């Protein structure tokens, strides 16, 4: 099985297993970051550009920043009252994912809606995060 380079996103103060660790392909992470920036620019803040690339190690968000980002993503996606997550997300999220992927066509791995839900669950339970070392997935 071929291994791919991945970002390891580490929860700082996890409150549930979903908040301990989030791993994502190296080429998909920038697409997810751009999606978050598009849906919640104020919550991501100016440091979002540092979340991928050579200077990304140990970057991330504090617990209050993560709470604001998770809340905004829930509000924008209109899923705050849906537990478990719906299998078919709201059209707004699908549109933004499609547009983000189209603009990031050079990224080889598509961002799935399942990965978006996993990241949202991570945000809701991580208590802040930092970007760890790269690993092989």
User: What is the CA-CA span between the terminal residues?
Assistant: 10 Å
Strand content bin:
15-25%
Rg over CA atoms, rounded to whole Å, is 14 Å
How is the largest sheet built, in terms of strand order?
2-1-4-3
DSSP helical segment count:
5
Largest sheet data = 4 strands, antiparallel
Mean pLDDT: 77
Give helix and strand order, one letter per element, not per position. EEHHEHHHE
Question: Are there runs of 5+ residues with pLDDT below 50, and where?
Answer: 79-86
Q: What proportion of the residues is helical, as a percent range?
A: 40-55%
* Structural class estimated from helices and strands: alpha+beta
Oligomer: single chain
Shape: globular
Q: What's the total number of strands?
A: 4
List the helices and strands and how they pair.
Layout: E1 5-11, E2 21-25, H1 29-39, H2 41-44, E3 60-61, H3 63-77, H4 91-103, H5 113-126, E4 129-136
Antiparallel strand pairs: 1-2, 1-4, 3-4
Helix pairs in contact: 1-4, 3-5
Please, could you describe this protein's structure?
27% of the residues are buried. The protein is globular. The protein has a four-stranded antiparallel β-sheet with strand order 2-1-4-3. It starts with a strand and ends with a strand. 42% of the residues lie in helices and 16% in strands. With 137 residues, the chain is α+β, with helices and mostly antiparallel strands.
């Amino acid at each position: 099985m071929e291994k791919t380079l991945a970002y390891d996103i580490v929860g700082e103060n996890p409150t549930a297993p979903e908040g301990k660790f989030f791993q994502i392909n190296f080429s998909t992470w920038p697409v997810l970051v751009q999606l978050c920036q598009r849906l919640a620019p104020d919550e991501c803040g100016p440091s979002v550009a540092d979340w991928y690339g050579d200077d990304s190690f140990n970057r991330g968000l504090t617990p209050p920043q993560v709470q604001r980002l998770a809340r905004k993503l829930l509000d924008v996606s209109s899923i705050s009252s849906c537990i478990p997550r719906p299998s078919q997300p709201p059209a707004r999220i699908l549109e933004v994912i499609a547009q983000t992927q189209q603009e990031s066509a050079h990224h080889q791995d598509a961002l799935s809606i399942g990965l978006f839900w996993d990241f949202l669950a991570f945000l809701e339970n991580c208590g802040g995060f930092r970007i760890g070392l790269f690993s092989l997935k």
